[in-house]
Amino acid sequence: MKLYFTIITLFSLNDISLFAQTDSLLPIQPRKKFDIEKNSYLLPHVWKSGQLKAVVGLTSTKFPLDYVESAIRIPLIDLSATLGLPQGFDLSANINSIYIANQAKIGLHWNKPWKKFSTKIGYDMGFIFGALTQFGFNNRTSAWSHYPNVSLGFKIKDIAITIKSDINIITYINTTAGGIKVTEFSDFFNGGSVGVYVEQRLWANHILIVGCRDNFVKYYYPVWPSFSAFNRKYHNIEFSLGLIIK
Description:
Elements: H1 2-25, H2 36-39, E1 52-62, H3 65-68, E2 73-84, E3 89-97, E4 102-113, E5 118-132, E6 139-156, E7 159-177, E8 180-185, E9 188-203, E10 206-217, E11 234-245
Antiparallel strand pairs: 1-2, 1-11, 2-3, 3-4, 4-5, 5-6, 6-7, 7-8, 7-9, 9-10, 10-11
């Protein structure tokens, strides 16, 4: 019996030794190093042709007191997607909505990396539309807006910081109340905006975007029902959160 137990023990140790040797011969998979540039969305960088990324987020804005006579904040749903094109170009689409006010944008951009930073120049065109049919109102609006823009970005370890500025040109606005045209404007300089955005890794390749933007404009589409009463520019501050989805 002792002899039988000894033989079984020797065979078991031999099998364990062979398994350990085989396991040691397996190739060790190197850990992939995280690159904030390749995984970022707003940071100017050369996109791989055909690469598609999307962002879902919320934008909170505080309206000037002249608009709404109260310090309220309304969140906008923000959906964006970008497709990489050859030669450093990318094509983007964006939708912002708070139900009564909406904007759909499409834009073409060119990215250029440098040693310490990167830049992007682009042109976006947006169609604005909205309807206020509650509380006895029957007001509607539509507008075409254009956004020449430039971005400057740089990295600090696994954090990407992007500064984006644009100017806003309105080529057409039409607002009606009960089917009667009340405002119609075309071809005027509406103002511009400057925003700062920080992109940081949450887990794996999932990136959180935190941003703040100042829109210094006359026509701020989320509060279009109040637009016709004013003839000056206001600071409309936006705070945004977004999550990059693959």
